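Re: that chain you flagged

S.,

Sorry for the slow reply, it's been a week of failed gels. I finally had a moment to sit down with the sequence you sent. For the record, here it is as I used it:
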Amino acid sequence: MSGHNAEERFVIVADARRRRTAAEKAAIVAELNAAGATVSAIARKHNVAASLLFRWRRESQIGKATPQQRSFVPVALAMTSAGASASPAGTGVGCIEIELVGGRRIRVEGSVDVALLRRLVDALEAR
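Prediction finished late last night. Pasting the structure tokens below so you have them in one place:
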């Protein structure tokens, strides 16, 4: 036997992948909802990768959202005392507050001459 060991060697390969039923997966994912439960602790307990638990949780959520949960919610904003004096949008009248370097602020109410405001900001920032 030209330099080879005369012993025969056998390699036993075990299937490391465990197949879990949908009920087992659901039970494990349900454990994630317990107070104080962490994905890593539950993964160690069941000898699975944490990424697999994230996948099972995501897959369990598919199709559960109702159309009402996916839609926009109408919002109504109440007028505040500061907003009560503001003009309707599009009239060019309102309030602008600009905070400069060093905490200085410029507050402009009413219609704004953009060129004048730009010169004012440039002059204050040049200091």
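What I noticed first: Residues 88-126 form one domain.

Talk soon,
D.
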